[in-house]
Amino acid sequence: MSSFFPTASSAGGSDHGHRTLAEVGEFGLIDEITADLPAGPDVVIGPGDDGAVLAVDSPLVCSVDVLIQDVHFKPQWSSATDVGRKSVAVNVADIEAMGGTATAIVVGFAAPADTEERWALDFARGLRAECDTAGVSLVGGDVTRSAQIAISVTVLGTLDGRAPVRRDGARPGQVVALCGRVGWAAAGLAVLGRGFRSPRAAVQAQQVPEVPYGQGKVAALAGATSMIDISDGLLADLGHVAERSGVAIDLRSDAFEVAEPLQAVAAATGSDPLKLILTGGEDHALAATFAADRVPAGWTVIGAVHEGESAVTVDGASWEGEAGWNHYG
Amino acid sequence: MSSFFPTASSAGGSDHGHRTLAEVGEFGLIDEITADLPAGPDVVIGPGDDGAVLAVDSPLVCSVDVLIQDVHFKPQWSSATDVGRKSVAVNVADIEAMGGTATAIVVGFAAPADTEERWALDFARGLRAECDTAGVSLVGGDVTRSAQIAISVTVLGTLDGRAPVRRDGARPGQVVALCGRVGWAAAGLAVLGRGFRSPRAAVQAQQVPEVPYGQGKVAALAGATSMIDISDGLLADLGHVAERSGVAIDLRSDAFEVAEPLQAVAAATGSDPLKLILTGGEDHALAATFAADRVPAGWTVIGAVHEGESAVTVDGASWEGEAGWNHYG
């Protein structure tokens, strides 16, 4: 445990929200965040000691993601509550992508000393809300001072005795299926970057991804042979699956329904909505490969696995990004 | 997984150390860090998938610590290798303080895009070296861009079926014992802050704490009734034990041997060496309470637990910090 916020020299009155973290102090903030913290039955010791103690199944799945102010979120575009929710969601998605179920998180939170206490408390409120949605317990953390807000979330999860679903199991003849949204967060980023706040659904997708909680386990139970969380974009992330599995993946452009917000953003920005779908990151959908007759309900087949050089193509051709389709590829 | 370092547009030649992280790219850096990574037999899946998978015992101990550039370390005072080692050590200390044995860590690493690759690789070398010393496997991580270097380490550990040792079990009649160094890191900080590099032992203690690995388990097996990691200073951290346990703790000033480097620093800075010992943080010694006849070898009795108001006194009096002893307290 570290203590690098100066301790509050005075109570600072009752006007919570306008105190800064320097005035509240590290321990004051921790007390506020952890008060009445809900905990699942697997939490033996929650926050407040040197470490948390948890009842766990073996093997355990574990992942960490770091979110940095002005890199992963902008305070002027996302509320503190949004950032808290997103911090949990993007991490739980990694456990889902292994076919697991997230159970607990620990959070590192670093912020400038002049950050308003309200921001930190709203952030914690967002953490709690998304933990509640995802069925995860917040069991520990560390709070410290920094020049820009930096958040790390480590998430632990269970496989309930199943084998983990890796990136290297895709085999020729199988299909590629998708669960969740793609392109929405990128569409939101595009409009926020131009100073707009609509379409609201796209902006909200950028602020807090809608992770298909529970679908990683569904895919694992259905026999998914590989799976990945779409954080960097469908082509980029399926590229990891293709490379690890030593296979070619071909996507069908007509498999994607172009949702209304994507159409609107593409029209407003003069771009191809398919570009948002294929290259937009941060939605944290799940993509997996299955035997053709094993695709579970709720998943959409978007392509197929072939023998060949490890690469991802669309309608049999390589995707040229900004330049549009390479019909000669 | 996030990807916020721009991908290298060119290979940049073979002069590794002078490339920046922007030139190397996120995936290049991850490849460098994870190449030939040693892993314990409990690592089912190491870095490279959405999550790591580990064989674990239940219950599991878990803790996170964040280290921020210019708050927890200064690049001009600590080498990247030192920072890597310290990042592991301070976290493993938290598992020790629960009576556990650390088994695995995941690391979040954020750094400016113009950071030299050499710094990141030396940091990773330090992580690996300290993991090796502590018997811990590095199983996963996240790498991203930020304005200042920010490191989060989450450590997992086992209790081997023992009950965790908490902060709230100290009882009147028991003794307080210490294992490890106190005051050394603060002495090192004092000389570094004045532009000096000696005494070398104190400076090294500031750069990389010497955590008494394995002694948390020793204390637990000996029947420790409470335990804490001394990160903020002996008085401050034992204050948490006193408060949680609802007891008074009195330390004996003659119980502390004043090591030569502390004498030297105190003399050079005109301060009381006992102040370094009682209030200096960052050495990550372990303090625990035991029945008087259960103190294990390697631990030094430094005080006793009494009934009374939750507070820590020294020789029966309150410690007044800068003002020296309050003989009238």
UniProtKB/TrEMBL annotation, chains A, B:
Residues 171-309 form the PurM-like C-terminal domain. Pfam families: AIRS, AIRS_C. Substrate binds at H72, E282, W325. Signal peptide: none annotated. Mg(2+) 4 binds at D50, S63, D94. It catalyses: thiamine phosphate + ATP = thiamine diphosphate + ADP. InterPro entries: PurM-like_C_dom, PurM-like_C_sf, PurM-like_N, PurM-like_N_sf, ThiL-like. GO terms for biological process: thiamine biosynthetic process; thiamine diphosphate biosynthetic process. Keywords: ATP-binding, Kinase, Magnesium, Metal-binding, Nucleotide-binding, Thiamine biosynthesis, Transferase. ATP binds at G141, D142, R167, S231. Transmembrane segments: none annotated. One of its GO terms (molecular function) is magnesium ion binding. It is an enzyme of class 2 (transferase). Residues 48-158 form the PurM-like N-terminal domain. Mg(2+) 3 binds at D50, D94, D229. SUPFAM superfamilies: PurM C-terminal domain-like, PurM N-terminal domain-like. Mg(2+) 5 binds at D232. Pathway: Cofactor biosynthesis; thiamine diphosphate biosynthesis; thiamine diphosphate from thiamine phosphate: step 1/1. Gene3D superfamilies: PurM-like C-terminal domain, PurM-like, N-terminal domain. Catalyzes the ATP-dependent phosphorylation of thiamine-monophosphate (TMP) to form thiamine-pyrophosphate (TPP), the active form of vitamin B1. Belongs to the thiamine-monophosphate kinase family. Reaction mechanism of ThiL seems to utilize a direct, inline transfer of the gamma-phosphate of ATP to TMP rather than a phosphorylated enzyme intermediate. This is Thiamine-monophosphate kinase. It comes from Microlunatus elymi.
